[in-house]
Amino acid sequence: MYPCMEIHLKKIESNARKVHEIFKPYGISIMAVTKGFTAEPRIAEAMLRGGLEYIADARIKNLKKLKNLPRQKVLLRLPMMSEAEDVVRYSDYSLNSEIETLKALGDAAKKLGTIHKVIIMVDLGDYREGIRSQKVGLFVKEAVEIEGVEIRGFGVNLTCFGGVIPEQTTLQRLVDISEEMRMKYELTLDIISGGSSSSVYLVEEENGFPDGINNLRLGEVILLGKETAFGRRFDGLCEDAFILKTQIIELKDKPSVPKGKIGRDAFGNVPKHEDRGIIRRAIVALGKQDVDPSGLIPMNENLSILGASSDHLILDLSKDPTGYQVGDIVKFYVKYGGMLNAMTSPYVDKVYIEDDQLDEDEELLLVEDI
After folding, report:
1. Residue 116, in any domain of the structure
2. Where is the Alanine racemase N-terminal domain (predicted)?
């Protein structure tokens, strides 16, 4: 059935293995971030076959799905106090920045007869989650007194909210803060986590990662083959592990500019249209209820996306010489947002391809080449 997301598990496994091999010599472990595909176990297992050391997700519901996989689990989103018991039950580590939440986790851990490990998030300028650097000492001083939890790491988030690019000097600050806290409070630190897929480019820079960074939390670079600081393909990884397919349901020549007084569309926006005369327009069975159109890249470079409503995606086929017909299949590469939307949508079928043959000399298809 269409629309469907075609997921190539061998390509995901290959990407994970290459990433693992790149960072292992630097002593950097990798958390396999599973939130982009709702923690579907088959995809998570493909990532783990590539050698990744941890499973990480933003939602406890997703970690519950993966509870039987033999890796330590990490909750990426700051815990809600209302889910403290489940956080302790289903994750080995959680990322934290609030004392009251740590107290709730400690109470839950004592109830369950265990110790919950926490990674303290430090805000180094992106201004999403984390403790401002000058206040980390006071926070840790109070946190180490909380029974039931144990500080086992420090981490930073960059790029995701403020767009701040990870730099060697920024990550060195994280290392310095972590080392100061370790010595002052006699902490045992397992993890100094230097960010996500936006940090991986540093391995190719002259200065690279500072000594002390020993972990990254990676999803997009493994799933879609791109580092996210600059949007570049990373070290020969496959970019076509996820392909979104759908079917043409209408194909007609129509004016490029709607006729009549223009008001707001179904989503409250006032659309703007370029007058290009009569164009060949296709409607495919895919809409904003399934995916954000900005997260799609047509595999056929002659096609362009004109816009979408809840259930319809409108394409311009005017430059395509191949002669699409009603019922033909149109394929799209997905960006991270497109993958996330489509994998979450119950209206997009998921098809898992197990038998991709990846040859070392195979020419990988690049989004930039399309």
Report:
1. yes
2. 7-220
The residue to which tokens 């098809």 are assigned: 351
- What pTM, to 2 d.p., does this model score? 0.89
Which tokens belong to 231? 């949007």
CATH assignment at residue 67: 3.20.20.10
Question: What is the domain extent for residue 188?
Answer: 8-224
End-to-end CA distance of the chain: 26
List the chain pLDDT tens, one digit each, 370 residues.
Answer: 899 999 999 999 999 999 999 999 999 999 999 999 999 999 999 999 999 999 999 999 999 999 999 999 999 999 999 999 999 999 999 999 999 999 999 999 999 999 999 999 999 988 889 999 999 999 999 999 999 999 999 999 998 888 888 899 999 999 999 999 999 999 999 999 999 999 999 998 888 999 999 999 999 999 999 998 888 888 889 999 999 999 999 999 987 666 666 666 666 666 676 667 788 999 999 999 999 999 999 999 999 999 999 999 999 999 987 789 999 999 999 999 999 999 999 999 999 998 765 444 343 443 333 3
Number of folded domains that form the chain: 2
- Whether 131 and 73 map to the same domain: the answer is yes
Q: Which residues pair with 4 in a beta bridge?
A: 245, 349
Residues 163 and 114 reside in one and the same domain:
yes
Please, which contacts does 56-64 make with residues 24 or more away whose CB atoms are closer than 8 Å?
56/31, 56/32, 56/217, 57/33, 59/35, 60/86, 60/87, 60/90, 60/91, 62/34, 62/35, 62/38, 63/39, 63/90, 63/91, 64/90
Query: Which residue of the set 35, 226, 245, 335 is catalytic?
Result: 35
